[in-house]
Amino acid sequence: MNIRTIASRYAATDWNSPKLKAFDYALSIATVGYGLHVGSPLVVVAGAAGAAATWWGLNARIVRGVQGAMRRRARN
Description:
Layout: H1 3-12, H2 18-38, H3 41-56, H4 58-75
């Protein structure tokens, strides 16, 4: 699988889907739980950052930004 294929799949994903957001939150909670279990503050912070990124809609914002940049590039 090359970079273009990965980018296409990433862009085609509906990052605002309730099911995907629920999965992201569940993964973040599991990461925080694992970090607490092993006693790693870094893993706990990574899980909390993942939950914050999901709440803020980071993936959807990245996709919109890249698509906008590609449209501007195509016009020039």
